[in-house]
## 1
Amino acid sequence: MTCRTVAILLFDEVEVLDFAGPFEVFAVAGELHEPAPFRVYTIAAGPGPIRARNGLSVNPDYRLSDAPRADVLIVPGGIGTRALLGDTDLLDGIAAAARQAELVLSVCSGALLLARAGLLAGLRATTHHEVLDVLRELAPATEIVAGARYVDNGRVITAAGISAGIDASLHIVGRLCGEQVSARTATYMEYRSLP
């Protein structure tokens, strides 16, 4: 089994479960299986800690500009995405990392950043139910799918709000490593997907 790198973008006011849920899925899959199928790390626009929702301080492993190439790029959401919609340097960095990645996953309003970076045109996408209209405005050439836990376009996967990132991450583990690896990871986490 090939070891893939998984990079998770962090920023101020990122929703905690948006990044921590996928982090746990890929990290647990890596711990439970030999050889480890994933190596997970975090990235941010600049150096130093970020302050996630509700004050959680997190120290990213790398700056986006000097991070190792990601096989799987995860862009979480949260209220902090709104301030980043005009950050062209960050959006360019996301687009560049996405071009090199095998898969790109957005969670919640992370889809807004993918839209602004030009990564959703011509695709189907979902996001948190409270920002579906914002996504429609940002991505007029994208088919917005309300009510889906996640939408898989092949290279680009978008997940609905918060806990849906866990479902999408387990789906990716299943795609890349097989359903047994995904099921064992979910069982260890005592996680059962919603119907």
## 2
Amino acid sequence: MKSVASKLKKCGKNYYFGRFHRLKGAEFISMGDNVVFDDSVVLTVWEHLNNRHFSPSVVIGNNVSISDFCHISIVNALHIDSGTAIGKWVTISDNSHGNVSYDDMQLGVFEREIVSRGSINIGRNVWVGDKVTILAPVSIGDGAIIAANAVVTKDVPPYCVVAGAPARVIKDLRPDSQN
């Protein structure tokens, strides 16, 4: 059986792959050195889904850790910069079944067209807590902290702590902030 590393578009050194629950689209994934995927991760990168064609890209920097039971689904693009830690049970998705419209809701979930509103960019040294959901299109700034159970639907400024559903800034860690 072919190793996970040999299936990837690009794979750095000193990696660790636990047992994936599901891995699809490895040929669209590039990653740097010292990347860890813990057990039971679902990582699906879709080139074809429901008769649609996509041009997906997943780029993971150096020293990134993705913990147990994470679910990542990409049809567009995901970039995770170096030094980022992603907690357990995190969901990251740039796609959904249909648009939120009356007409789409008349169709069965699996009959709806797969749509992506954009890409997801997670900056350098970001800490993503357990059970966070990140939905496109968003950009999470360097050094941000995403509190456990947060639902990120809008951009997160660098060096800020966000919490809640939907996530909002609860603390600005930058030296020039008023917090």
## 3
Amino acid sequence: MLIRRGALDIPMLSAVVLSGGLSTRMGEDKALVRFRGRTLVEHVIEAVRGVADEVIVSVGKGRGGQYGHVLPRGCKFVEDDISGIGPLEGLSRTFDAAVGEYVLVSPCDTPFLRTELCRYVATVAVGSEGAVPVVKGLTEPLHGVYERRPALRVFESVLSIGGRKMNDACAKLDLRRVDEGALRMIDPDLLSFWNLNTREDLARAEAIAEHTMPV
């Protein structure tokens, strides 16, 4: 099914926001840390909602109750089955629950994420098994867009043999690369890819946001 978004045709798109990490450097669940009046996860949800037909938040095992009062109406969460496996566990669970033909993936700790960048990666992904941005020569698989069914099969296959690395899964998919030059046309400073991992990062982000983000 094709959904018309502006001048672009994109198949039905789900979005998964990854919030299942341990957040050891932040000292508390990063997704729920407040930044400019809202939690980090709310900022990311707002960005992906501008292009996705549904939003699913991946959370750690037993931590769903912490998100009930935070998630905007219409969003849902899916808990990991097993703790400590990493993002592949969350992606396997959420891709199984998603309904879109393609799935946009975003971390919960990137409050400068731009909807336009998400939309562009999604358009590049159409017609293949997905697309991943390339920043400073390195792929960013947790900012990719994946065709749901083949990706789910690969995630489950890698997990079944004890694999945990996202790059191992990506190697088994026919993915297009989104060059850094194209990304900078949308987000010149590539702040969409900046993960806030520490209190120091949060303070720097607050200073930058004073000049770039409305309250």
## 4
Amino acid sequence: MQYRSVSASALLITLLTSCVASQPRNVADVCDIFSDRRAWYKAAKASAERWGVPTPVNMAFIYQESTFRARAKPERSRILWIIPGPRPSSAYGYAQALDSTWSDYVQASGNGRARRNNFDDAIDFVAWYNSMSTRLSNIAPNDARNLYLAYHEGNGGYQRGTYREKQWLLEAASNVQTNAGRFASQYSTCKSELNKNWFQRLFS
């Protein structure tokens, strides 16, 4: 009986692990990502329409936070440069969402089964947070740089300007803006193809 219980647990872990998508082959090209993973495109498009923030902006956030790795976590600190110490925060998953902020999203979205290592949930989280920043901090939906500053510092911190003395964060926010622009250019060339259903693609 004990052997069967262990085997069932191992099988469950294997099944759950297999549900987590691997990192896309070309994370720098949003068309390649969506062409390989049509389900991701549908999720990203639905989140953009639901929350009013462009898909390239939301995708640039996930590129910055995890480069599309489902189980990404912050690097551990080091004790005496050798011994692994604690992680600096509870950030986890595609969007590097904190425990507390993720709980807020679950409550606001009504998605009680949302998981941070699920792309559909993570892209919706990013779009939700960015939508909140457009409303609370009056940031334009395509202003990826300032949206990222609010995403990292929280809207209260953004409004107080807590990012101004953080050069590394300012550089990261500029990278997000650059990547959002690149993704937007790429997206414009493949959006119509991505919107075709399987039958239409047979004749394209």
